[in-house]
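Support request, please re-run this one:
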Amino acid sequence: MSKEVDLDEVERVDQEDRCLLERVTKKDEAAFDELYVRYQGLVYSTIHQVLQDFDDTLEVMQEVFHSIWKRASTYNEKSGRPITWIAAISRNRAIDRVRSRQRQGKLRGAIENEKDFRSFVWQQENADDFLSRRDRVNHLIDALDHLTPMQREAVEKVYLQGLTHQEFADELGEPIGTVKARVRRGVMSLKRNLSAGLMGA
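Re-run finished. Output below.
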């Protein structure tokens, strides 16, 4: 008998979650706040289990809820329970952050070998006159590190990994216009950061 009650309770919670997600697709902030309160613990623990880092976990947690706010309409009841969908987004984002860390370790070589990206960033008059190649790479890495996680991801995907804007948009499940704007903001921030680094050298 208790098993039947438990199943009923699970179905009740799932139905509430589905209703909340449906309201979030309509940009209902109250529904989003309620979903956040319900699942902030699950999202945090899922991410932290992968990353084992407090600051990174909080950053990725913010990205997860941003993704839920933007992509609630992509939830499909046939693909599983809402809680499973939220946990999967959390885990996938955490794994993406791990991969991003690994990419950072390989970034120096990638920058050295990526002619188009290097020439794009270093189209600055007289840069070669006062900075060695090694120093330029260090400044570039510092500039990348000061981008937001979403901006850094956009710049890396398009200029280091060679994805087109459309491919990147498909990967994120977001409109191409949104992706282009994100890449553009990332590039502008990178150039500002780089300029500031050069000025202070």
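Residues 1-5, 124-131 have pLDDT under 50 and may be disordered. Residues 155 and 183 are 6 Å apart (CA to CA).
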